[in-house]
Automatic annotation (TrEMBL), chains A, B:
<feature type="binding site">
    <location>
        <begin position="341"/>
        <end position="344"/>
    </location>
    <ligand>
        <name>NAD(+)</name>
    </ligand>
</feature>
<feature type="binding site">
    <location>
        <begin position="265"/>
        <end position="269"/>
    </location>
    <ligand>
        <name>NAD(+)</name>
    </ligand>
</feature>
<dbReference type="InterPro" id="IPR033689">
    <property type="entry name" value="FDH_NAD-dep"/>
</dbReference>
<feature type="site" description="Important for catalytic activity">
    <location>
        <position position="293"/>
    </location>
</feature>
<dbReference type="GO" id="GO:0051287">
    <property type="term" value="F:NAD binding"/>
</dbReference>
<dbReference type="GO" id="GO:0016616">
    <property type="term" value="F:oxidoreductase activity, acting on the CH-OH group of donors, NAD or NADP as acceptor"/>
</dbReference>
<feature type="binding site">
    <location>
        <position position="131"/>
    </location>
    <ligand>
        <name>substrate</name>
    </ligand>
</feature>
<dbReference type="InterPro" id="IPR006140">
    <property type="entry name" value="D-isomer_DH_NAD-bd"/>
</dbReference>
<dbReference type="Pfam" id="PF02826">
    <property type="entry name" value="2-Hacid_dh_C"/>
</dbReference>
<comment type="function">
    <text>Catalyzes the NAD(+)-dependent oxidation of formate to carbon dioxide. Involved in the cell stress response.</text>
</comment>
<feature type="binding site">
    <location>
        <position position="230"/>
    </location>
    <ligand>
        <name>NAD(+)</name>
    </ligand>
</feature>
<feature type="domain" description="D-isomer specific 2-hydroxyacid dehydrogenase NAD-binding">
    <location>
        <begin position="165"/>
        <end position="343"/>
    </location>
</feature>
<feature type="domain" description="D-isomer specific 2-hydroxyacid dehydrogenase catalytic">
    <location>
        <begin position="72"/>
        <end position="367"/>
    </location>
</feature>
<dbReference type="GO" id="GO:0009507">
    <property type="term" value="C:chloroplast"/>
</dbReference>
<comment type="similarity">
    <text>Belongs to the D-isomer specific 2-hydroxyacid dehydrogenase family. FDH subfamily.</text>
</comment>
<feature type="binding site">
    <location>
        <position position="291"/>
    </location>
    <ligand>
        <name>NAD(+)</name>
    </ligand>
</feature>
<dbReference type="InterPro" id="IPR029752">
    <property type="entry name" value="D-isomer_DH_CS1"/>
</dbReference>
């Protein structure tokens, strides 16, 4: 039964489907919208293997292929799906010269470098199934006249919920207790001596975009002292409703916080911004949650601060690079509550971003504009948050 | 340094302190309030050992002794503190014949049976440092004219926060991802196939007392469908503010819920009420959170349902018995997110219940009434929630 479902979903279909022989029309000028005729669309997702068959709504994997294969193929398009994305011998690399559309996810990012863009003569559209397009060289994409779009809003609730979970796991010191259970132990003191309530603590978010605001809204009934740092102050009514206080200067906010949540996109300016010096500005024993991007942090500085106790706990689902290698120091540092990159790819999130990808492909085929908030690069210009 | 702090806090002081030689006045009639003179007070807490020295606010352990030793001894009372509570050879048992006050916690319960009550000729007052007095034979205590009181409200926020954490851990499938990290693995699919958002799910609480209500308030911004079962419907204004719908019949509510939270006290009526038949009434794959009492559940029925998949995940910090033996089936059942009994003994919670115990002892010495909501047994009568 399980094997049958895997077979039905299998990516192998991509390479044997009837439409795979249709040749796409050459398109050397990179129009923002589709030229008529068949398109070659490549999707890069993580492989689910034995897990693919366990949930019919598991569309975000190679096997699920966003649930759009029949729809694409019925319109004469070619749809290649793979998880093999790294290096010159990868499946993705083979299709770079003639693909029109590349779909990828932040959970298993297909890195789109300037070199790949140069090589991709037919490429018109880069879609992120989810949110976060920093795996794409956006300046190169803009210079090449490509359109880059993501499904804005598709995972904001997922990530905000996940952040609140991680805050609670760290503050309440959940993991040492769970490890006791599976190790046959019982030592309440070994948990309690550093377990706290969230109530009354100061929580600061670096970035109060959609995810940061959803987090703050969910934090409100916990009766914390809520702070946010962003480029702009919220309008007073919203700020009052959310109940958070604006901190114009990041380094002034940091020492006030018991808990810091990173909710800022990865850009050239923010890469590695949370380094040894920033960590030193935090309260001793600060708890940090980062579901934004691993490369915002100085990896080794975080590991060192967890060892010294300057950071009292670190949790997140983002790493640099991804997948995290076996020897990534965050796997082994004390008081970490890490997971692989998962927060935005819940089943609910997958269904939302699969629907968003389908909608944008449909608009692309019809030559229609996308929802404006989805554009990351349009007509050679980067969206403001990526500048 | 660590050793020094442990020594300063050490329980050994209890047996060598100057006041330990003072003999309490005989008190064979069990007055509800203190007779003049020195009292023998016994506290039963968990031992912290090496953890005692790591946090000056860690007052809930044997070593911390609720932080009331100096205060008690300065008034001429004798204060014995121990973690040794089981059997006829235990330290607690030695003091049963002449103690006046017994303080215990739900985290390391001193079981006060009818036999012990019979033997405790001087006993007047049983205090629970925290909430939950089911380790005491309340009917026997009432018949003997004892006063039983707890620090109502001292841990309600702690437990409600902890419940929300556990809901998120189960719904979002946190633990398999964390285990991947520490095992050097990376398999997003192995997490994602059964990870969901909390948003949009139906959450039902069995019991909507203080903890249940605080949980519902914290759940509100998650945009769930909230249900509650209790003996009484909330008043309409409160119900509307909390945003939960009353379910008069438990067995009608169960099949509606994606997530069930148990928030009902353990009584003769509720013991084992969540048995095989009740579990069968739930939605397949239901997630259950129980921070109330382990004995509310049929232990083996829960383990069997986790194995069969009828229960999709079970999390809680309460077991029967406590400490959970090494072979307790909940340690080894699939999809459990268990910890030892911890949710109400955060550092914040400890400071609140230590202050509550001190306040009630002070009132007891002065012959004053306690805050009315704290009484569990008063003048031979049980509080309504324990009837």
């Amino acid at each position: 039964m399980a094997m049958k479902r895997v077979a039905a979903f299998s990516a192998i279909r991509a390479f044997t489907s009837p439409s795979s022989s249709s040749v796409s029309s050459p398109n050397l000028t990179r129009h923002l919208h589709a030229s008529p005729g068949s398109k070659k669309i490549v999707g890069v997702f993580y492989k689910a293997n034995e897990y693919a068959a366990l949930n019919p709504n598991f569309v975000g994997c190679v096997e699920g292929a966003l649930g759009i294969r029949d729809w694409l193929e019925s319109q004469g398009h070619q749809y290649i799906v793979t998880d093999d994305k790294e290096g010159l011998d990868s499946e993705l690399e083979k299709h770079i010269p003639d693909l029109h559309v590349l779909i990828s996810t932040p959970f298993h990012p297909a890195y789109v470098t300037a070199e790949r863009i140069k090589k991709a003569k037919n490429l018109q559209l880069l879609l992120t199934a989810g949110i976060g397009s920093d795996h794409i060289d956006l300046n190169a994409a803009a210079a090449a006249g490509l359109t880059v779009a993501e499904i804005t809003g598709s995972n904001v609730v997922s990530v905000a919920e996940d952040e609140l979970m991680r805050i609670l796991i760290l503050v309440r010191n959940f993991l040492p207790g769970h490890h006791q259970v599976i190790n046959g132990e019982w030592n309440v003191a070994g948990i309690a001596y550093r377990a706290y309530d969230l109530e009354g603590k100061t929580v600061g978010t670096i970035g109060a975009g959609r995810i940061g605001r959803l987090l703050l809204q969910r934090l409100k009934p916990f009766n914390c002292n809520l702070l946010y740092h962003d480029r702009l102050k919220m309008d007073p009514e919203l700020e009052n409703q959310i109940g958070a206080k604006f901190e114009e200067d990041l380094d002034t906010m940091l020492p006030k916080c018991d808990i810091i949540v990173v909710n800022t996109p990865l850009t050239d300016k923010t890469r590695g911004f949370f380094d040894k010096n920033r960590i030193a500005k935090c309260k001793k024993g600060v708890l940090i949650v980062n579901n934004a991007r691993g490369a915002l942090m100085d990896t080794q500085a975080v590991a060192d601060a967890c060892s010294s106790g300057q950071i009292g706990g670190y949790s997140g689902d983002v790493w640099y690079p991804q997948p995290a290698p076996k020897d990534h120091p965050w796997r082994y540092m004390p008081n970490q509550a890490m997971t692989p990159h998962i927060s935005g790819t819940t089943i609910d999130g997958q269904l939302r971003y699969a629907a968003g990808v389908k909608d944008m492909l449909d608009r692309y085929f019809k030559g229609e504009d996308f929802p404006p908030q989805n554009y990351i690069v349009k007509e050679g210009k980067l969206a403001s948050q990526y500048k």
